Amino acid sequence: MMKTLRILDRTIGVVAPSLVGLYAARIFVRPRQPKPRNMTGWTLLSSPAIQRQYVAWGKSAAGSSKKVLIIHGWESHAGHMNVLSDALVTAGLNVVALDAPAHGDAEGEATNAIQFAAALLRVSAELGPFDAVIGHSMGGGAAFIAIADGMQVGKVVTIGAPFLFSDVLHRFAKYIGLPPKAEKAFVDRVENMTGRSWDETRGDVVAPKVAQPCLVVHDQNDKEIPFSDAQNLVKVLPRGELYETQGLGHRRILHDRTTAAYIAKWITS
Fold this sequence. Notes:
By secondary structure, the protein is of the alpha/beta class. It is built from ten helices and eight strands. An eight-stranded mixed sheet has the order 1-2-4-3-5-6-7-8, sandwiched between helices.
């Protein structure tokens, strides 16, 4: 798909930017399926209201009533959060982790950050309240949107979360070589697909509405979401603090046991 996009950019991207922008948008909102996953230790949680718009998985800590909600990032799934979820259970917390729309076992082919946020709101209403919510990448940005939209939760942790979703789109456009007019058409098309303006999802719009304590976890060498995004989030969060890592990047940070243990300790402290 990426090769096809680059060919289109070189051939008709300049003369037909709207067409190329539309094609790029349709590809962008359809996540590729990740490699087979290990769901050992997870329990599938069912609810008539869910209807597979998302799928909820659970891990339990014996004798505990405290619950944490986890949401993964783009082209990921609940199983990618195993190291973190195990650290949380060891710390005495019950865990509910989502397969977000069009990811894992959830239905759908296309999705976006607004649908991620809507899934958080629904599962919070059905299985909450939660003592904390943890979101990786798009899931972290979606957590801010969900809280701004009314989700009640005790604490918030983001891992590699973006400050501006529109910046993610512009970086993707640059990556595939979209010319300026096609890039604008692409960003506008994706915005139309979400049903909300990008201005409503800006970090400096939603993060100030997050009154809960918030831990912003980010690797200094993250090549997908720049470390400066975390610094910008901490500036506008009323009760935000930054936890920096080095050399873990955007995805390996999820498999780092030291980071997972710190997050669990921060939530339970």
